[in-house]
Structures are given as C-alpha cells and as structure tokens.
Amino acid sequence: MTILCHLGDWLQHDETALGQWERDFRVPRAVHRMTGYGLLAAFLAVLCVLSLMPLDTWPLNAVSPPMQKMMHVLLYGALAALLVWVLQSAGFGALAVGAAAILVPVGFGAAMEGLQRMTPHRVGSWRDVGWDAVGAVIAVAIAMGTLFKG
Length: 150
Description:
Blueprint: H1 2-11, H2 15-24, H3 29-52, H4 65-89, H5 94-118, H6 126-147
Helix pairs in contact: 1-2, 3-4, 4-5, 4-6, 5-6
C-alpha cells in the first residue's frame, strides 16, 4: 500500500514524496554501473556478430544498401548513447564522456571494417566508419544535452 501512496504522490510531482520514493527504491550505484557494463558488453557482442556474419545470411540479405548505412548510423549511435550513460553514471566529467563516447564507437567501427577486409565473405569500407561517426556524434549531442544540463 505504501508503494501505491508514494507512486500516487510522485505522479502528482510532490517533491517530498519523490524524495521518499528515491530513498525507498534506490538502486545501489554499483548495481547500476554493473548493469550498464553488462549492456555495453552485450551490445558490443551483437555488433561483432552483425559485422562479421556473411552478407548472404538473414537478416543482412534482406537489407538494402541505403538501409545498411542507416543501420550504421543507428547502431553506432546507440553504442555512443549507451557509453554516455555508462560513463556519466561512473562519474566521469562531460568532456571525457563526450570524447570517449565518440572515439570508442568510431574506433570499434574501424576495427570491424578492418576485420571485414580480412574476412572472405565480407567487404570492409572506410565510408562505413564515417557513417558510424555520424551516428556517434548525433547520439552524443543529444545525450549530452539531456544528461549534462547547465
């Protein structure tokens, strides 16, 4: 019953109830950080699989080339946004978070494209790294604007 009372007060934007809600249901910072690291590792694993699987297998064979470029923007943008969340929750400053959240996805994308060049069933393209960078920059701009407000 207390939970419903707190939730009702919280929905009415009562500051004291919100403070009580946060105290009652706070996730320890270490658990929050480990969840972020786990999501980051899982996301990187998915990107590795998608980047190195043969192009003639599903789901890649159903995607047109323009949509593949959009997937680069979206997936590496999501990676950058996830990095902003993880690094910000770990206590890093805005400049370090922004720089790492752009450099890590671009570096990872470059590594995947390099591996694709050495894989017989894939073709690596440095233009794709550019699309990765576009996604990372857009995501970091949006995420930094919401997380690090003045």
